[in-house]
Design brief:
Dna Ligase, domain 1, 4-stranded parallel β-sheet, 11 helices, Beta-Lactamase, alpha/beta, 3 domains, about 20% strand, 4-stranded antiparallel β-sheet, flat
């Protein structure tokens, strides 16, 4: 049997190159541990020739920012017929543009903080200070300013005092030509996992402040919830009468997991970890289940 070959694309020329290379190395190690043949490729002038001459069975885009998130590399992979893990080029383009993504989220019926988006030319032509004053009048304080494109929180800054807005604006424009100003919501960083009935991860999200243990715990809570078709907080109570339940591999009997059911049958689980309490983890997980059926 011919071994499957996976190309991990990492590096690139964005501000986030170093982060991308680290992600690519971790992915490559994990894939090799699973017995796959891995090619680690940078996205340079030789990429297209590599994709044609040494065509992999699949690709994983580990690029951060720029071409790796705005749909450009995904478009190249689609053009040459290489399957890849992740979102299509069209979906990437929509998510990469933060104001567009927020508008789509709101149109879909989900809540997102109030915002305005203004290009550098508006500040230059109308005067930065009057525009910033109007921004505060409209949105209030605190605000978070960020470039309309990009990741890793580059150029993002929370502003609690109006006097700090000009510096925040300048810092934001160093990473892009358009400023997204948004009402700041002071929340908690958590890890979220959605798994199927076999425990396979369908979606994983980890906030910048959530550690790797939170990521693993979220997956285990999700698997526990779908396996027993019950919120994990309820399952914790069952340990008194069946203490060996906690010894089942891949499960975690702590609050924070909720099953997703269709006609009463469990089809997936959502797990959350990293909030100040398990009760809050589970509140978030249940909110996720509710959102799926809006």
């Amino acid at each position: 049997m011919v071994e499957a070959t996976v190309a991990v694309l990492a590096g690139g020329l964005s501000h986030e190159r170093d982060v991308s290379l680290r992600s690519g190395r971790r992915l490559s190690v994990a894939l090799r541990d699973q017995g796959l043949t891995v090619q680690e490729w940078d996205t340079d002038a030789e990429l297209l020739d590599r994709l044609r001459d040494d065509k992999p069975d699949a690709a994983i885009v580990a690029l951060h920012g720029g071409a790796g998130e705005n749909g450009s590399v995904q478009t190249i992979l689609e053009m040459v017929g290489v399957p890849f893990v992740g979102t299509s080029s069209n979906g990437c383009r929509k998510a990469w543009n933060k104001p567009l993504a927020k508008a789509l989220i709101r149109n879909a019926g989900f809540a997102t903080p109030e915002w305005v988006s203004l290009p550098h030319s508006t500040f230059r032509e109308l005067g930065a200070q009057p525009v910033l004053d109007a921004m505060v009048e409209s949105l209030g304080l605190p605000l978070i300013l960020k470039p309309d494109q990009g990741g890793s929180a580059l150029g993002a800054q929370v502003v609690r005092d109006a006097g700090d807005l000009p510096a925040a604006m300048v810092g934001c424009l160093a990473y892009g030509d358009t400023v997204l100003a948004e009402r700041f919501v002071d929340g908690v960083e958590v890890a979220v996992a959605v798994v199927d009935r076999d425990g396979r991860a369908l979606v994983t999200l980890r906030g910048d402040g959530a550690g790797p243990q939170s990521y693993e715990a979220a997956q285990e809570k999700a698997f526990t919830a779908v396996s027993w078709n019950a919120p994990t907080s309820e399952l914790v109570e069952r340990l008194d009468s069946a203490p060996t339940l906690k010894d089942i591999p891949g499960t975690l009997f702590l609050a924070g997991g909720a099953p997703v059911t269709v006609k009463g049958a469990p089809v997936a689980g959502i797990g959350v970890a990293g909030a100040p309490s398990g009760d809050l983890d589970e509140k978030f997980a249940k909110a996720g289940v509710t959102a799926l059926f809006r």
